[in-house]
Amino acid sequence: MARVVVVGGGFGGLASAARLAKLGHAVTLVEQAPTLGGALSTVTRDEGFAWDAGPTTTLLPAVVRDLFRKTGRPLEREPGDVDLVARDLVREHRFEDGSALRLPGGSRAAQLAAFDALGPGLGEQWVGYVASHSDTWDLLRRDYLERPWDPTLAPRALTDLLTSREVLHRRLRRTFRDDRLRLVAGHPFVADGHDLRNVPAWQGVVSYVEQRFGAWTVPGGIAALGTVLADRLGTRGVTVLTGTTAHDVVLRGGRVAAVATSAGEIDTDLVVCAIDPRRLPALARHVERTMPAIPPVVCHVGLSDAHSLPDLPHEVVLHGDPMLVVRTGGRAPDGAAAWTVLGRGRLAEDVLDALARHRIDLRDRVVVRVDRSPRDLVDAWGGSPLGVLWQGRATTRRRLGPTTPIPGVYAAGAHATPGSGLPFVGLSAALVAQAIGPADRSDQGRP
User: For residue 394, how many other CB atoms are within 10 A of its CB?
Assistant: First the structure.
C-alpha cells in the first residue's frame, strides 16, 4: 500500500483520489479552497438563485458512470436525483445572418435533418465530416484515452495521428464552403479560448462524440456530481485537507518524498498533481513551453418575470465578435430564472449590453448579478479549468500526464488531457489509476 497525496480537489483530483483509495492506497487530498469541487461546483446567492460554476453538461456519460461504479455504489443508486439524463440538444447556434441551427446529439439522422434545414445539401456535408472521425475516435479511445500512452509501444497509426501537421482551421476550410458549418465544428475549441490555426485536426473528433453520444446533465445542476463524489471520498477513507495550499513537491534522491503545504510537509510515496503544474515549482520547469487556456468572462444573473423571458434551450451560442453563450439552466425561486452569460472575443462593453444587441435584453430584469473574470476563475480554482492552450502538434508531448519526468509524480485533470470537460478529465484520472496500479499489501511504501 502506497501513501498518495493528491493535489487539487476539482473533478480530476476527486476522481483520482476515489480510484486510488478503492485500489487500496492510503490517500490524502489537499485543496487550497475551503470546499471541494473546483469548477464542478455551485455559485449561490441568498436570494435563492444558484448556477453551475463550470460545465452544465457532459459528453461520454460512460466515463462518469464508470467512475462511480469502480469506486463503490453506481451513480443511479446514489441518494437524490443525481443520475445523468440526456439532453435533446447539444446546443443551439445562432449566426450573424439571422439563421439558426438546433444541434441534436446522439443521432446521425437527427443531425442530417437539422443541417438540411439550415441549407440544402448541408446535412450530407456535415455527416460526412463527422463520419471521417470515426476511425480516429476508435484509435484515440483504445490507445490514448483509455490506457497510458507509451510512444515506444504505440501503434504507428496513432503516432502518425498525434504528430500530424494538419490543423483544424485548414481541415474545416477544405471540407466546408459554408462558414456556418465551420463555426459549428470549431465552436468547442473557440469557446475554450483556442485558435483553430493551432488546434490539431484530429481534435475534430469532438463532433463525432457529440453526434454519437449526445450531451448529458443532472437534474438540478451537474455540480451535484461534485458533491456526491466528495462524499465518496469519505466512504473510501480518503483524508481531505481543505483550505490547505500545496507549495511544492519535495524530492529526495531524485524521487518524491513529501508535499510541502501551508500546513507543513506531508510525507508520501506518490503524488498526483491535479492542478496546473505551474503552481508546483518542481513540475513547472517541465511545462514551461506550454500556456493555460484562458477562461471566458462569466456573468451569472438572477432574473424576474421568468414567464416573459425568451424561450431558449439550455445553451445558445450567439456567433460574432464577441461570441456569447447563454445558459438557462440555473435554479431560481418561483417566478424567476437563473441564467449564465459567457463572453469571449472583443468584449469592449458590458456583457449584458452585448447580449441586448442580439435582441435578448435582460438588463431591466436583473435581480442579482455575479460577475467573474478569467482571473477570478483561475485564482478560485488553482488554474484554468480549460487546461492547456493548443499551440500546435507539439502541445501533445509538452503536456504532462498520466506520468511525469519525476519518479513517483503523476498528473491528472484538465492540464493532463487533450481537452476540457468531465469526459477527458475523468479519463485522465482513470489513466493515473492504471499507471499506479493496485496496492501491494506486502509493500510498506513504494509500489
Answer: 12
Asked if 325 and 342 touch (Cβ cutoff 8 Å), the reply is yes
How far apart are alpha carbons 68 and 19 in whole angstroms? 9
Positive or negative, the CA dihedral 80, 85, 91, 92 is negative
Residue 445: pLDDT over 80: no
Q: Partners of 256 in the beta sheet?
A: 251
Any idea which residue has 456556418 for its cell? 180
221: buried, middle or exposed (CB in 10 Å: 19+, 13-18, 0-12)? buried
**Residues sharing a CB contact under 8 Å with residue 334, sequence separation 6 or more, in sequence order:** none
For the four alpha carbons of 130, 134, 140 and 142, in that order, the dihedral sign comes to positive
Contact 43, 310 (CB under 8 A): no
Sign of the dihedral through C-alpha 70, 72, 77, 80: negative
pTM, rounded to two decimals: 0.94
Give, in order, the Cα–Cα distances in Å from 144 to each of 157, 162, 401: 12, 10, 11
Alpha-carbon distances, residue 164 vs 136, 390, 393 (angstroms) = 12, 14, 7
Instruction: Give the position of cell 484520472.
Output: 429
- The residue among 146, 126, 195, 137 whose CA lies nearest residue 167 is 195
* Residue 371 CB neighbour total at 10 angstroms: 14
Q: Is 339 left (phi over 0), alpha (psi -120 to 50) or beta?
A: beta
Q: Find cell 452585448 and name the residue.
A: 354
Mean of all residue pLDDT scores within the chain: 94
Exposed, middle or buried by CB within 10 Å (0-12, 13-18, 19+), for 6? buried
Do 362 and 79 meet the contact criterion of CB atoms below 8 Å apart? no
**Does 440 have pLDDT greater than 80?**
yes
Give residue 441's pLDDT.
58
